[in-house]
């Protein structure tokens, strides 16, 4: 976490305008990083709970299993039909669990562009699939790892 903080400080050194002591600035920066970490952890735990609930509702016969795999394949195909850059951003976000900031840095895009692309991808997918269908893909990906 500290390494990320100092990396960010170094990258933004030209734009930094610190109006308090460096010690106070660093303290607040670390505090905000910790709060962000807890927020991400809470989101991750919520996601895991949804996966657990989904696993509890596993198909109990062969036709349900086939439907499950067919739906997952269908959603994967829909993801592959997204525009190339949107698909790349969506995959980094959802399947590699990178933050918006990490994606923006890796692809040399603004954070707002990354947010917009993720939102558009989700909107496209939601128009064709339910939350359960999208959760099915998450379960399949979890099983593949």
UniProtKB/TrEMBL annotation:
Q: By what name is this protein known? A: Sigma-70 family RNA polymerase sigma factor
Pfam families, alphabetized: Sigma70_r4_2
List each copy of the RNA polymerase sigma factor 70 region 4 type domain by range.
75-124
Tell me which InterPro entries the record gives.
Answer: RNA_pol_sigma-70-like, RNA_pol_sigma-70_dom, RNA_pol_sigma70_r4_t2, RNA_pol_sigma_r2, RNA_pol_sigma_r3/r4-like, WH-like_DNA-bd_sf
Q: Which UniProt keywords apply?
A: Sigma factor, Transcription, Transcription regulation
Family that this chain belongs to: Belongs to the sigma-70 factor family. ECF subfamily.
Q: Does the keyword Transcription apply?
A: yes
């Amino acid at each position: 976490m500290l390494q990320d903080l100092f990396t960010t400080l170094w990258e933004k050194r030209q734009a930094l305008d610190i109006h308090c002591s460096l010690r106070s600035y660093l303290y607040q920066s670390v505090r905000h990083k910790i709060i962000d970490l807890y927020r991400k952890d809470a989101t991750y735990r919520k996601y895991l709970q949804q996966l657990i609930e989904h696993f509890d509702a596993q198909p109990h016969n062969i036709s349900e299993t086939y439907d499950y795999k067919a739906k997952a394949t269908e959603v994967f195909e829909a993801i592959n039909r997204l525009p190339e850059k949107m698909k790349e951003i969506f995959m980094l976000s959802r399947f590699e669990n990178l933050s918006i900031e990490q994606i923006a840095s890796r692809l040399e895009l603004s954070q707002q562009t990354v947010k917009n692309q993720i939102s558009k991808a989700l909107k496209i997918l939601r128009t064709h699939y339910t939350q359960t269908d999208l959760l099915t893909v998450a379960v399949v990906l979890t099983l593949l790892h």
